[in-house]
Amino acid sequence: MSTMAELALMDLAPEFASTRRMFERLPFDQRDFTPHAKSWPLGKLAIHLLDPPLWGTVTCTTTELAFDAPAPGKVDPQSAAEFLEIWDARVAAFSDVLATMTDETLQQTWQATAGGHVVMSMPRIAVLRSMVLNHMIHHRAQLTMYYRLLDVPVPGLYGPSADEH
Q1: Residue 164 forms part of a structural domain
Q2: 147-162 pLDDT, tens per residue?
Q3: Is residue 19 within 8 Å of 48, Cβ to Cβ?
């Protein structure tokens, strides 16, 4: 039987690879593009998409994060290549840490606070599913829409895309 960490790594690996393909096509010169007044600029969304593997590492190495404290790992990549470097480093660091986690440590409660109040409290494995995996997929999907509007070929994420036929 597989451990929770092994199962999580199996879920995460293809999603990390798909997200990397998005970064490979990042139109860095279009980072100020915003599809709607309520939308983030492409660059801000792409920077935010760098965060899930970092959050995974933080989740595995701490028991709490204060949302109102300075966010760990803030970056401002200056090129598309730098996005890839940061992504690869964060994925490798998280994968290494996750591989050391036991079922017991993944079932321990992890919480986020704001203003001294608990805003989220759940087992680490649930945080990894919701705030790392699902959150990454959500923002990656947003980025595919930006790419489509900018006529950037969208990579296949779950099989070939319309741009790859």
Answers
A1: no
A2: 999 999 999 999 999 9
A3: no
